[in-house]
């Protein structure tokens, strides 16, 4: 969601509450200047973002063993 800086100043509580559910992009003169986001990390979304990075032969059990050595 896009919100102007002046609108954010007018209703800060509204946008802080909304940030727990979605990212809020703050604009100044029509350009994005900041992002208000939840402090709570969405672990599922983070994991899904990695799926495109992992190779097809990635083995989680092997990676876990390597990490524990």
Polypeptide structure, described:
With 69 residues, the chain is α+β, with helices and mostly antiparallel strands. It is 46% helix and 20% strand. A three-stranded mixed beta sheet has the order 1-2-3. The chain is elongated, with a radius of gyration of 19 Å. The model has no long low-confidence stretch (mean pLDDT 84).
List the SSEs and their pairings:
Elements: E1 2-4, H1 5-10, H2 12-19, E2 24-28, E3 31-36, H3 43-51, H4 60-68
Parallel strand pairs: 1-2
Antiparallel strand pairs: 2-3
Helix content: 40-55%
What is the structural class?
Answer: alpha+beta
By DSSP, the count of extended strands is 3
How many whole angstroms does the radius of gyration measure?
A: 19 Å
Spatial gap, N to C terminus: 45 Å
Mean pLDDT: 84
| Unreliable runs | none
Largest beta sheet, briefly? 3 strands, mixed
**Strand content of the residues, in percent?**
15-25%
Give the helix tally. 4
Order of helices and strands: EHHEEHH
The dominant shape is elongated
- Could you give the order of strands across the largest sheet? 1-2-3
